[in-house]
Amino acid sequence: MADGTQGLPGRWSYGALGGGAGLAAWLLFELLPGPMAGMTRLHLLLSSFGTAFFIAALAMAGALRLGRALAAAALLALPMAGLMTWASLRFDTVAGALDDIVAPAAFAALLVLAPPFLIAGFSPGGRWLDYGALFTRSWEIVVRFSAAWLFVGLAWGILFLSNALFGLVGLEVIEWLLELEPVPYLLTGLTLGLALAVVGERSEYLSPELMLGLFRLLLPVVLAVVAVFLLALPLRGIGHLFGGLSAASILLATAFGAVTLISSAADAGEACRPRGALAESCARLLALLLPVLAALAGTAVAMRLGQYGATPERVLAAVLALLAMGYGLGYALAALGRRRWATGVRRVNVAMALTAMVLAAGLLTPLLDPQRISAADQVARYADGRVPADKLDLWTLGHDWGRAGQAALERLAAMEDGSGAEAMERQLAALKGAASRADFELARRGRALADDRSSLALTLPVRPEGATLPEGFVAGLRPWEVRQISEACAARTAGGNPSCVAVLADLSGARPGDEILILAQRPGEGPLLRAYFPEAGGYTMRSPDYLGGADPYRDAGAAIDALIAGRYDLRPMQLNALEVEGRTLFFGR
Asked: Cα(first)–Cα(last) distance of the chain, in Å?
């Protein structure tokens, strides 16, 4: 350890710090919300400070003397609490700010990335950018917290078991203690602190090298998976990758997973880096493939932004794609070097960690305000005619994007008369009188909903050939179902068919007549697959269970083409019931 073992916090100091964290959590999240109901910003400031301070202090106390750890934690927690409170001003209420995914994610990123730099800088003779210290301390924190939380879970399991054992003889002391509001928080914090202390004392037995060694075993596997994916991509077709944000999420997760594995091979320095030829070769090859994964993820995000405009979630995805591309280009350049490729990887890691912290802080300031960026983009898309009034998500704009969204609504209302002005006025009037999103959807569609139902009845292909939908079926669909299926029918599959189909088939021998299977896929969305079973007064909706074959969600277009072409069969499935003591138990639906 940087300070040596002498002077580092012992078990009682760790326990007191953990217990204090638990009591602070109870105070901030259970006791104060009521009395501070009229001071929500101040409560958010205190809660953010307490969260950052205690997590950072517990993380750094194993590497620094207690006084230095507390000072470093306060140095980190104060600006983080200020940034989080500043970001909350984007919304009228703190509750609205906490419903936003971006600000908490940026806060968490800063809390994860900053402590290793503080440990390196606050250690005697330490340097803020010493990669060996940054790498070692980062993985020590991961290992220590993982082991400590595992022990906390075990301790609670023993506590519940003990309570059950006491209950057999009528003793309720443990249950009585746990009913006291601060006790669960105090016990969790105290147990976590003591566990961190013991893990720190036994660091030679629970070294990060164990986890890093296991990660290196995964390098050949991940390299093979990525290589096969990239080789199969041209054969399968690259277009389907860019239909939805889920593809970007998978690609980004894979890219950052590859970053972790490559970093494990580079290790903390040349002296401790493993010299196995297999691990080194796999790491360098994976580094060369990383820019391709990052570029695909970035393209998927960019196409989503182009198709549907910016949202706070897409802004966050764009930031992550930018980071992935930075890692990819840096790692690839390092891997192309004949010597000391790992040194290049380490330099990239420091630069990208600093970049990530700057971007995370920026997301909490007006510089990268995702709500403002998203609202401005949506208004611009309407203003230049890329999206009509009835396709703008005004409910989200006005209710989920805070003050920036409300200002965007005012700009939309103040726009000069044009071809879409009347439609926008109707949409804004529907939004003003709606108490919920469902009310807004019903109000804004108005007469158009009846037209949509009529149009859907004409455009939805029905099979077998010559079959027709039962009378009243389309009229009974809910507005959002009509919208989803109609948008799917307006698109086309690879076979040139409407991207929707209805199949009438007897799916339940216990009911007379046919049920209705609907399979539809909107552009850029996952497929809609369900069956409607006739019941008294309407239909009940059911999702399928898979009994064999590939998941139809992976290639819904091909399944739609096959159903329209009549390439399907109905196969009876025999399901038995269990009769026992006059009761019949049936496990099939």
From this structure: 61
Tens of pLDDT, residues 220-256: 999 999 999 999 888 766 655 655 447 889 999 999 9
What tens digit of pLDDT does each residue of 40-81 get? 999 999 999 999 999 999 999 888 888 899 999 999 999 999
Q: Tens digit of pLDDT for each residue in 477-508?
A: 887 788 889 889 998 888 899 999 999 988 87
List C-alpha distances in Å: 230 to 257, 285, 298.
Answer: 16, 13, 15
- Position 263, amino acid: S
Copy the structure tokens of residue 331: 């790692």
What is the separation of C-alpha 106 from the centre of its chain, rounded to a whole number of angstroms? 13
Residue 160 CB neighbour total at 10 angstroms: 13
The pLDDT of residue 5: 46
Which residues touch 394 (CB under 8 Å, ≥6 apart)? 409, 412, 427, 428, 431, 440, 444
Tell the residue number behind the tokens 């998978």, with chain if given.
Answer: 250
Taking the C-alpha atoms of residue 262 and residue 264, their distance in angstroms, rounded to an integer, is 5
Each residue's pLDDT tens digit, 386-426? 888 888 889 999 999 999 999 999 999 888 655 567 788 88
Alpha helices in 415-478 (DSSP H): 421-432, 437-445, 447-459, 473-476
CB contact at 8 A, 342 and 270: yes
Strand partners, 530: 518
Backbone angles phi, psi at 236, to 5 degrees: -80, -25
Report yes or no: 265 and 280 within 8 Å, Cβ to Cβ.
yes
Q: Is 378 exposed, middle or buried (0-12, 13-18, 19+ CB in 10 A)?
A: buried
Long-range contacts of 415-420 (CB under 8 A, 24+ apart): 415/383, 420/382, 420/385, 420/388, 420/389
Determine contact, residues 329/293, Cβ cutoff 8 Å: no
The whole-angstrom separation of Cα 177 and Cα 182 is 9
Instruction: Find the DSSP H helices in 267-337.
Output: 277-308, 312-336
pLDDT for the residue 208: 85
**Residue 484 CB neighbour total at 10 angstroms:** 19
Token digits of residue 267: 């290790």
